[in-house]
Amino acid sequence: MHSTVKNEIRKRQSKWKSVHWELVEPAVSIRTLKARMITLDKNDLNKAYVQLTLEFITKQKFEAYNSKREVVSGDKSKEVLVKDIWVFERSLFHPGAYWRVCARITL
């Protein structure tokens, strides 16, 4: 379920020895870019799931270090406005189904 998020974190961390990352405050804005319902059987709407594509604008602080603890990227004293686009989905035919992350869209 969280493999997309975990893979994204691993990808970012593999570039540097260590990373300081901080979400400064709750999201500045969250906007729905797309909402859709997808059916597995066009004759049975109970066998469907929904997808939401959301854009998150957040303030973040970031700084990356090499193995000598030298700064190689970013500046943790500066806030940066970051735009992320994530796709979430939820089954409509499984009682108690949770929303899950199914993709991150890179621009």
Automatic annotation (TrEMBL):
Family of this protein: Belongs to the mitochondrion-specific ribosomal protein mL45 family.
Location relative to the cell: Mitochondrion
Protein name: Large ribosomal subunit protein mL45
Pfam families, per database record: Tim44
TM annotation in the entry: none
Organism this protein belongs to: Aegilops tauschii subsp. strangulata (Goatgrass)
Domain Tim44-like residue range list: 3-103
Keywords assigned by UniProt, alphabetized: Mitochondrion, Ribonucleoprotein, Ribosomal protein, Transit peptide
GO cellular component: mitochondrion; ribonucleoprotein complex; ribosome
Keyword hit for Ribosomal protein: yes
